[in-house]
């Protein structure tokens, strides 16, 4: 997942919390698609925390949906 982790590192370096949350959600999606559900859940939970901290209701909803899919 190295290519997907690069945007995450950049977002963290520049302090872009919204971008960081989206990058974490994308990593969760990638791991979910690979069948690595526990790893996906870890990324989704991090994304959810950020969405709630910054008041991103849309991001929160998307992440909760993705979490539900990972728990299926």
From TrEMBL:
Keywords: Cytoplasm, Repeat, TPR repeat. InterPro entries: GPSM, TPR-like_helical_dom_sf, TPR_rpt. GO terms for cellular component: cell cortex. It holds the Pfam family TPR_12. One of its GO terms (molecular function) is GDP-dissociation inhibitor activity. Gene3D superfamilies: Tetratricopeptide repeat domain (1.25.40.10). SUPFAM superfamilies: TPR-like (SSF48452). Its main location: cytoplasm. It is found in: Cytoplasm. TPR repeats lie at residues 21-54. This is Uncharacterized protein.
